[in-house]
Specification:
This protein is mainly α and 191 residues long. It contains eight helices and no strands. It starts with 5 loop residues before the first helix and ends in an 11-residue tail after the last helix.
Length: 191
């Protein structure tokens, strides 16, 4: 079944074919985990969110329309499940931290560039920590997953204008944080 489309596998799984569901899980588990990790910020929470995503997927397959793309359907479940995991974690401990985000390091920098890149990366991580789960999730879907505004809107269940607004606010807050830390020179100051 590995040559079957996601949509075909989902239809088979909805009809009770457990092997088809297992193929879907194997095919998408890493991308679901990466999305969950980028939103939740911890391995344990991401692992829980990924498992819960596939449980919710299995329970909802009867309502899935195989004429529609499967991947956005799964991403929406993963996104919402990850946000719920963050909300639960906040209520438990009062704060959410982001330990890892996509690696932005240059593969072959010189020593000076390495130091600047580490500083920039540190400030970038710190800026992401300060974003709400909704802003961080929207930013990650665009920056890491490369999703279009329309796909992000479908995944998150908000309008395209809201996606654009969230991305704008996320970028602005990240830039403000990085600039206030001195990691980026201000435009127009001659540097």
């Amino acid at each position: 079944m590995t040559g079957s489309s996601d949509e075909t596998l989902a239809a088979r799984a909805a009809a009770g074919d457990l092997a088809a569901f297992e193929d879907l899980v194997n095919r998408h588990r890493m991308s679901v985990y990466r999305l969950a990790r980028s939103i939740t910020g911890t391995h344990d929470d991401a692992d829980d969110a990924a498992q819960e995503t596939f449980l919710r997927l299995y329970r909802s397959l009867s309502s899935y329309d195989p004429k529609r793309p499967f991947r956005p359907y799964l991403r929406r479940i993963a996104y919402n499940t990850s946000l719920n995991t963050v909300r639960k974690a906040k209520s438990r401990v009062g704060a959410v931290t982001v330990n890892e985000v996509p690696d932005i390091r240059d593969p072959a920098p010189n020593p000076h560039e390495m130091m600047e890149t580490r500083d920039m990366e540190h400030h970038f991580h710190e800026a992401l920590k300060g974003l709400s789960a909704e802003l961080r999730g929207t930013f990650i879907l665009r920056a890491s997953e490369g999703m279009s505004y329309r796909d992000i809107a479908r995944t998150t269940g908000v309008r395209i204008g809201t996606v654009m607004s969230r991305l704008s606010r996320a970028r602005e807050r990240i830039l403000q944080h990085v600039q206030s830390a001195g990691a980026v020179t201000q435009r127009g100051n001659g540097s």
